[in-house]
From TrEMBL:
InterPro entries: BolA (IPR002634), BolA-like_sf (IPR036065), BolA/IbaG_stress_morph_reg (IPR050961). It comes from Extensimonas vulgaris. Pfam families: BolA. Belongs to the BolA/IbaG family. This is Acid stress-induced BolA-like protein IbaG/YrbA.
Length: 81
């Protein structure tokens, strides 16, 4: 799976203002900014992202995905800080 394919998969089911991906095709690191993360704990945010992957994570097409998740306001603080 390419970064563009993974990005499209996540963005198709989760409204995202920003997605950055790095990886080797199986092991990925993502930075994701979404208003859908408002009011969610980090584990709940990660579960939302994993839900967008569906069977891809279970069939090992995406072996590992580590991520940082932000709301738009949190992201603005990161960028400005």
């Amino acid at each position: 799976m390419t970064a563009d394919e993974l990005k499209a998969l996540i963005a198709a089911q989760l409204p995202c203002e920003h997605i950055a991906l790095e990886g080797d095709g199986r092991h990925w690191f993502a930075t994701i900014v979404s208003p859908a993360f408002e009011g969610l704990r980090p584990i709940q945010r990660h579960q939302r992202v994993y839900a967008t992957l569906g069977s891809k994570i279970h069939t090992d097409e995406v072996h590992a995905l580590s991520m940082k998740t932000y709301t738009p306001a949190e992201w603005a603080q990161q960028a400005g800080g």
